[in-house]
């Protein structure tokens, strides 16, 4: 596992743990949740961005906003 993938994996695991403990998950923007799920399914921000037809930096920013909202 490369360093970039390992860092992404750790960040995604952190987000999963936070989401599982949220009482107010419905307050999160659905687009952010879709982005998160797509990243998990694709295993990469770049592939998820391609699938969602957005740029990789935009998707990374969405992931960061989700993390900050938790």
Output mean pLDDT.
81
Spans where pLDDT lies below 50 across 5 or more residues: none
Q: Radius of gyration in whole Å, from Cα?
A: 12 Å
Shape: globular
Report the order of strands and helices. Answer: HHHH
What proportion of the residues form beta strands (DSSP E)?
Answer: under 5%
Distance between the ends: 27 Å
Note the total helix count: 4
How would you characterize the largest beta sheet? Answer: none
Give helix % range. over 70%
Task: Indicate how many domains the architecture comprises.
Answer: 1
Class from secondary-structure proportions = mainly alpha
Short structural description:
This is LysR family transcriptional regulator. By secondary structure, the chain is mostly helical.
Question: If you had to describe this structure to a student in words, what would you say it looks like?
Answer:
The protein is mainly α. The chain has one domain. The protein contains four helices and no strands. The protein has helices at residues 3-20, 30-42, 45-52, 56-69. The radius of gyration is 12 Å and the shape is globular. The mean pLDDT is 81. It comes from Marinomonas rhodophyticola.
């Amino acid at each position: 596992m490369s360093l970039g993938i390992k860092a992404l994996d750790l960040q995604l695991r952190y987000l999963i743990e936070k989401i599982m403990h949220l009482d107010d998950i419905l307050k999160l923007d659905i687009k952010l949740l879709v982005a998160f799920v797509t990243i998990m399914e694709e295993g990469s921000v770049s592939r998820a961005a391609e699938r969602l037809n957005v740029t990789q930096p935009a998707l990374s920013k969405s992931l960061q906003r989700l993390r900050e909202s938790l």
